[in-house]
Design brief:
Elements (H helix, E strand, L loop, with lengths): L15 E5 L15 H6 L1 H7 L3 E4 L27 H13 L3 E6 L9 H9 L11 E2 L22 E3 L5 E3 L14 H16 L4 E4 L43 H12 L7 E4 L5 H7 L6 E3 L2 H4 L5 H18 L4 E3 L8 H4 L8 H6 L9 H17 L3 E5 L20 H5 L43 H4 L6 H15 L5 E3 L6 E6 L4 E5 L5 E2 L5 E4 L8 E2 L3 E5 L2
Length: 548
């Protein structure tokens, strides 16, 4: 396929990227599961919205033990979602509309159904096939205990025993065995995967769990308990880069190798790391000779507080600058409570407990949450760098917190013994029309039930409606294309609880995070997150863009 992407190699530095969760975006064949043809049919929505690129979460063959992140073949399409021809058609249509295409790559683990893992199970202990994964004998008199105390992110031990007595490592679900990145065949296979998708016109990659690839596999394996903490908490207790399986220094050699692959293309392929590590460590993944960008999760986790937000913004810009990268900003994704709900939860709320209550303890004010979400969006879109938008946030969708237990799909629910509800509430299929069997998602039902209130948030219900959240996004993205220049900002004096900064070409963004109105600074109002009063004030939970 010809490369129809932009000739500008730096297009990603200030892009707006829209995340598509394929199973929940649009269903073309009516089986209740979103698919690639459904995405292609709805790509005009992204073109009208005004984003620069779409990022596709995994669409590869998978048993869906973890929403598609358990990959059985990294170079094919799940037949329930389509074919490679369907992917080519999607990429061609995206490029025709001027959209770049970014795909998820999942290098830490495979599905247990991957041919390599099936071969390893049959080959037995000591075989060459098992060297591609992390198999170890157990501890205890009969090998009945796991090889170490390493814990799964989803709960429980990170080790699973097989019938011949050995154990294999899975930092996530048991259906997701970890690869051994010390093995050259693993490294070579992923170089082939990067070229496979790049040759099909893919413009970039989002790298799943980028900080987990390299483990300390020297015998005997080190227990994390020796650091006085478990799992990722131990990152704060060990010298940087030396945790047994998170954020080890050796991972950067892998990404420097990948960069050499990316740079053989014109323009070079882009990449962004999903690395849940502190900013000082995250900057390493974003260096020009590695992936180039890394997700800024500190910003996503920052409370709705002016001082905290200013600190997070200033720190994020500084760390990105140190790497020679641009900053990244994100408010929602497929792993977190949607920000239209999250931002209105009282400070200190246990989000899992809130989900377990069905979103009723505490009750939240949906209108208040939407107001904050709109203000947060305009703040994010005014910042220097790349903004990542999760499907449905342009509709103002809140979390579907009241999903019945019997429909939950996230492996976290079962693996924690029903102690954590999981991430299904942000993955419910999108509403496109105010009515119909699945609100326009497809001709049949949806793989997760859509709440009755979804219809009022539908694309068709908001398109062309003045003041709707969808029209706010469209206007903001259209303005942003005209306004964004440079990658710096200058903070201005502001009342307590207010963020006020100017961009390099003089326009300004003001956000009132306080609970009282403040005087609106002088300047032409270009856009406001809600209609402004006539008394010259900026209400609480409101963002305004002002002309120079």
């Amino acid at each position: 396929m010809a490369d129809l992407s932009s000739r500008n190699p730096d297009w990603w530095r200030q892009a707006v990227i829209y995340q598509v969760y394929p199973r929940s975006f649009a269903d073309a064949d009516g089986d209740g599961l979103g698919d690639l043809r459904g995405i292609t049919q709805r790509l005009s929505h992204l073109g009208t919205l005004g984003v620069d690129a779409l990022w596709l979460s995994p669409f590869y063959p998978s048993e869906l033990a973890d929403g598609g992140y358990d990959v059985a073949d990294h170079r094919d399409v799940d037949p329930r979602l389509g074919t490679l021809d369907d992917f080519d058609a999607l990429a061609a249509e995206a490029h025709r509309l001027g959209l770049k295409v970014i795909v998820d790559i999942v290098p830490n683990h495979t599905s247990r159904l991957h041919p390599w893992f099936q071969e390893a199970l049959l080959a037995g202990p000591g075989s060459a096939a098992r060297e591609r994964y992390v198999f170890r004998p157990g501890r205890g008199e009969h090998g009945e205990l796991p090889p170490s105390d390493w814990r799964s992110v989803f709960g429980g031990s990170a080790w699973q025993r097989v019938p011949d007595g050995e154990w294999y490592l899975h930092l996530f679900a048991p259906e997701q065995p970890d690869l051994n990145w010390d093995h050259e065949e693993v490294r070579a296979d992923f170089r082939t995967t990067l070229r496979f998708w790049s040759d099909r016109g893919v413009d970039g990659f989002r790298v799943d769990v980028a900080h987990a690839l390299v483990k300390d596999l020297a015998q005997p394996l080190r227990d994390v308990a020796e650091f006085g903490a478990t799992g990722e908490e131990a990152l704060e207790r060990v010298p940087p880069g030396t945790h047994p399986y998170w954020d080890r220094d050796g991972v950067h050699e892998i990404f420097r190798d990948w960069r050499r692959v990316f740079d053989t293309y014109t323009p070079p392929r882009t990449a962004v790391a999903e690395a849940w590590v502190p900013g000082a460590r995250r900057v390493l993944y974003a260096r020009p000779d590695e992936l180039g960008q890394a997700f800024n999760f500190e910003y996503l986790q920052t409370p709705w507080d002016a001082d905290a937000l200013r600190e997070a913004i200033t720190g994020s810009l500084a760390t990105a600058r140190a790497a020679g990268a641009s900053a990244t900003w994100v408010l929602s994704n497929h792993d977190v409570v949607r920000h239209a709900s999250r931002l209105t939860l009282p400070p200190g709320t246990d989000e899992n407990a809130w989900l377990l209550s069905g979103g009723r303890a505490p009750e939240i004010d949906a209108a208040h949450g939407l107001r904050r979400a709109r203000a947060a969006t305009l703040l994010m879109l005014a910042l220097p760098g790349s903004s990542y938008v999760y499907q449905g946030e342009e509709l103002g969708l809140p979390e579907a917190a009241d999903l019945p237990e019997g429909v939950l799909q996230d492996p976290v629910w079962e693996q924690t013994g029903h102690a954590r509800k999981g991430r299904d509430g942000c993955r419910v299929p999108l509403p496109w029309t105010p009515d119909g069997p699945s609100y326009g998602f497809g001709s049949g039902g949806a793989w997760l039930p859509q709440p009755a209130w979804f219809g009022s948030y539908a694309v068709a219900a908001q398109a062309g409606t003045a003041g709707s959240t969808l029209e706010l996004y469209r206007t903001a993205l259209r303005l942003r294309r005209k306004l964004i220049e440079g990658e710096t900002l200058t903070w201005a004096e502001a009342p307590r609880g207010v963020l006020h900064f100017a961009r390099s070409d003089g326009w300004r963004c003001v956000t009132n995070v306080s609970d009282a109105p403040v005087p609106l600074p002088p300047g032409e109002v270009l856009l406001a997150s809600v209609p402004l009063p006539l008394d010259g004030t900026l209400p609480p939970d409101t963002t305004v863009w002002l002309g120079a």
